Structure prediction request, 669 residues.
Amino acid sequence: MAEKTYLQAISDGLRQEMERDERVYLIGEDIGVFGGAFKVTQGLQEQFGEWRVIDSPLSETAIVAACTGSAIVGMRPVAEMQFADFVSCAWDHLTTVSAKQRYRAGTAIPMVVRLPCGGGFSGGPFHSQMYDGYFAHCPGLKLALPSTPEDAKGMIVEAIRDPNPVLFFEHKHLYRRVKGEVPDELYSTPFGKARVAREGTDVTVVAWSAMVWTALDAAEELAKEGISVEVIDLRTIAPLDFESVAASVARTSKAVVLYEDTRTLGFGAEIAARIADELFESLDGPVKRIASADVPIPFSPPLEKAVLPQVEDVVREVRELANW
Amino acid sequence: MSTAQESAASPRLRELGLDREDALQMYRNMLITRGVEERGHILFRQGKIPGSFYTGRGNEAAAVGAAFAMHAEDWGTPLHRDMGVHITRGIEPWRIFAQYMGRADGPTQGKDGNVHLADARLGLIAMVSHLPAMLPVAVGCALAFRIRGEQDRCAFAWSGEGATARGDFHEGVNLAAVRNLPCVFIIDNNQWAYSTPNDLSYNTQRAAERANGYGIPGITVDGTDVLEVFEAIKAARERAVSGQGPSVVECLTLRMEGHAVHDDAFYVPKEKFDEYAEKDPVERFRTWLMQNVAFSEDEDEAIRTSVKRLLTEALEKAEASPMPDPATATEGLFASPEELDNPHH
Prediction:
């Protein structure tokens, strides 16, 4: 066990799985010699050579399509989109080919696309987006969104071993900001099992990725007022562990869904709908959603802060619901 | 082989590394290809095929010739005019008919239709409608061969001339070129992309000239001549696996029917159809065989009869296949870990 950043945990997971399984290779823009725009892959080309850490041309479609093809003939590819935002250039391939091949043609596609995602640091409209909602709408993809360093390592390994296309959302704002104890050995963290990030009795906040930390900070504030908040970290939204959500809401009888994606049709809307639909008898108040405003993510700090969910937004909403 | 036939073995075949049996196999595969699609047409008119129906009439030589140049361990991504590739790689025709009719025993078990099929055990990957989305997938296969240092494996990526206008073509060919991957790009140029003629699809004289932009060779061959196609693809494969990199082979043909059954191709001038009817790939090769390897009417009749029997039995077997159970509609979205135990994964 050692204290690692979220970024180092992902890097360790990649390195150790590449050491264990020679079929694993990485492909992306500037990931080799340069070590990646965020340095997640730093040192890996030195260790594994230029054919296992491949600097690709600026071609997102070719990158993900090469993953599909090489996966079918026995490799375990891991692509990096330099920013999650650029996956829009590979959209067609991921949703048309990778996601549908198992269903329609029976061919397993074991591949991972790493997506450095999310806002909070003035990345502007094209370096800040949270694309989970778009892809959660596409059957055939798995979506992993770790919030802690320990999960980040275990889930990147699980993503590589999964026999399906996995989109691995790694939050840029957590890369160096979040540290935690991470086991030294190689391990994998199963998908589809949510985690209770903080136990509480009054209100359940359902979150994933960076919003888990926003929820935890809000819970800390609210505890001072005597409001006990339970924070559920979903870890993966496809597959979704709705049972853990249901179990928590059954205990607290109040639910807030907190998500970084834009509000309308973000994945939190689906969770809120399911809570309302399946847990109506358990509820003592309306299901609330806290999400980004329905606009692109703006550049200037006060504007970005106004759009992305903030700790104070969560405190306000949860307080109101607790007093319902 | 009789002495008479042996003495008739053509220098052309020898030059290509083929024997008489190979040539007859090519011919038989072209007949099966055409027969499958002709019977498919009948099934469609009988109302037994849901949706639409597509054929590759006119492209039989290009597809069979190219597939004949593939080695057993190679992989490819054929498209909807390339039934001859599936046939040459060894798919059982009854499964194609089952696919056409949306039956449970089609390769996609009714999840997808028409030519959106492939048997991965034969080294083929099922196409999607978005063309040429599968071209960079083949590049991925070639990349895997290169990473593993496999010396004699090649990937074959098909594209129509129309699809060369899409970004997938550019990104895929470029990646293969800069990494010198063992890949052959085959452009089935049938001169119309649905109703769009070549001069509205690309601005070079030949589609193969697009290769120049990637620093790789591109040649154009007569796609109605199965031996010419075979020769070009074989050379492109040898080039690719010997480390000289990918290349483009454009097979010039004419799409002898509409884009699909609903399309009568009124926009193709009649003289064009007449010109290409004169060099029908199947007839053309039959004549060649007769003139060069003493292929007799009796032999031809025997092959045609055996193909006819094969397809009749295939059709019976396909019609006996049940429609899929509606409960399976929501199954099979994700693969289980055991599925990665098969040889190609």
Summary: Chain A has a mean pLDDT of 98.
